[in-house]
Amino acid sequence: MNVEETMSAHGFRLSAGCSGQASYTKFIKSQGKRAYVSVTNADGKGFPTSLEEPVSVVVYELKSGDELGPAQKFQSLCAFLESAEE
């Protein structure tokens, strides 16, 4: 399975922001608010292209776009997906 298929299987879709930055996103509920998870490569400037690539994960409130917590860094996309299953 490639990265896009793997992310899709976990409920994520590829999204592009207004600045042209692409990330994988998934809508969730966090702290009682509608929110979304954004997964980017480690520098936050694009989407991960392999399961071994380091990633940055941020949860944003859907309505305001505010971060609901600090970015979390993972050694690999695979490590993030494994932690999300727990």
List strands and helices in order, with pairings.
Elements: H1 3-9, E1 13-16, E2 22-30, E3 33-41, E4 55-61, E5 72-74, H2 77-85
Antiparallel strand pairs: 1-2, 2-3, 3-4, 4-5
Tell me what you see in this structure.
The chain has helices at residues 3-9, 77-85; strands at 13-16, 22-30, 33-41, 55-61, 72-74. By secondary structure, the chain is α+β, with helices and mostly antiparallel strands. It has one domain (3-85). The chain has a five-stranded antiparallel beta sheet. A hairpin with a 5-residue loop joins strand 1 and strand 2. It is globular. The mean pLDDT is 92.
Mean pLDDT: 92
The span between the termini is 21 Å
| Helix and strand composition category | alpha+beta
Largest β-sheet summary? 5 strands, antiparallel
Work out the helicity level: 10-25%
Order of helices and strands: HEEEEEH
Short summary:
With 86 residues, the protein is α+β, with helices and mostly antiparallel strands.
List keywords for this structure.
alpha+beta, five-stranded antiparallel beta sheet, 19% helix, 86 residues
